[in-house]
Amino acid sequence: DVKVTQSSRYLVKRTGEKVFLECVQDMDHENMFWYRQDPGLGLRLIYFSYDVKMKEKGDIPEGYSVSREKKERFSLILESASTNQTSMYLCASSSGIYTEAFFGQGTRLTVV
Amino acid sequence: DAKTTQPPSMDCAEGRAANLPCNHSTISGNEYVYWYRQIHSQGPQYIIHGLKNNETNEMASLIITEDRKSSTLILPHATLRDTAVYYCIVRVRDNFNKFYFGSGTKLNVKP
How close B94 comes to chain A (CA, Å)? Predict the structure, then answer.
């Protein structure tokens, strides 16, 4: 089975902190994604990557950056956390453009 | 991507088949129907997808009407662990960054 693992289930951070969310997949997938999920808004794509060191902005990249130094790992960085970034963050991976995505268990981030 | 309409909630008795409907009347020819579910506080789990033929895997069956304007996800023998929010999504298969999950259907499996 595909396994997508996010480093933390719950995080509490202070406003202005730099926050790192880590995601690792074990199926050699080329594509990796970061979404955030908020009530009434569904899942919104923040960034995605289709290869090592390659990244593309999604629908809501402002306030975020990403890093993909190795194929299996995709990191989401909140440069200066703000309260409006309190959300559930979901990482996903897929083996190609034309396939389904597999999701991690999610990280619930609270910024206070 | 086509908009989908799902009932907000459904109940099902444990051991019975759960039939979850989805309307996607504006679906276009190259849009696939995907189903995911999300158990409380976990990430979405892929279930099944299809274009126009009915599909079956170890988890569920997907029935798509001939005009493709609606579909039904069938869990043949629902268990308590199938209690979750089920999302029906239609998307162009080459638009891999666009997964809009919407509100979904909360399936309550009862003993």
Answer: 6
